[in-house]
Amino acid sequence: MAFTHKRKYRSEETKDKISAYLYISPFFIIFAIIGLYPAVFSLYLAFQKWNGLGDMAFVGLNNFNIVLHDPIFWKSLYNTIIMGLMGTAPQIIVGIILAFILNQTYLKLKNMFRAMIFLPYITSMVAVALVFGVFFSNNDTALANYILNLFGMDSIAWKTNEWGAKIAISIMVFWRWIGYNTIIYLAGLQSIPKNLYEAARIDGANVLQQLRFITIPLLKPFILLTVFFSTVGALQLFTEPTVFLGASAFSRTEAMTVVMYLYRDAFNLQSFGTGSATAIILLIIIVIFSAVNLYLTSGIGKKKRRFKHE
Description:
The protein has two domains: 2-45; 64-297, Orthogonal Bundle (MetI-like fold), CATH 1.10.3720. The chain is 73% helix and 1% strand. The chain contains 13 helices and two strands. It has helices at residues 2-45, 62-68, 71-102, 110-122, 125-135, 143-150, 162-190, 194-202, 207-218, 220-235, 239-245, 258-268, 272-297, and strands at 48-49, 57-58. Strands 1-2 form a two-stranded antiparallel ribbon.
């Protein structure tokens, strides 16, 4: 009798486990189809020569050799790093400052300002590209050139000039993602006990000292998170330059990024082998840059200092 009851209990427990796995299985099935399989297949393609239709031919490391000896690849990597630094690095500094301001109790209409700052992140990329395309038009009447002319500077052909395109795309990236980082920092600021700021003010710390010795050290986990996301996003830059430059995006190298180089090889030149090899190289670069950035930012807030009475 006891054996029958125990067997029935195990049967019910097995059914519960199967039921639980069935409930979560859709996620793993979808992930395996659209995530895991393409990644494994791309790794396999990196060692093959394939145009997408014919038979594959194993070429070993030849695809990697072709990519690493291609000057256009190194130019695209240079463009990616430069636009990444120009577009994402200021987000960390400006995002912390904006979050610090929005967290002040004396600021009125805080909810409205928070919504306005976050609005670019949820705006359609096509709409953003259209607005910035007009703002950074090559014409003298464009708003960007009009501002330059006011200060006595010559107009710039933003979409054909190398540094003009880099600056325009970097500003677009900064404008679109600054709200995302600001909201994350704001959430981190709201988790900091207010009595720390009160004690700092009593100890004679001004606003800048509070920001330096309290806010930034205690925001360290949030800074690490945004640095990681910003690094990965900067090295995967694709949508902004592609939409901004339009049809000529893949035929010019002034603002071509690594992902654009990958896309051009795979879908324009039908060279899926070198495209996959570029993806593997980009993955390695992302891991290295992310590790370096996390190492550099992990030292934030380790030094303890005292406020000086003024």
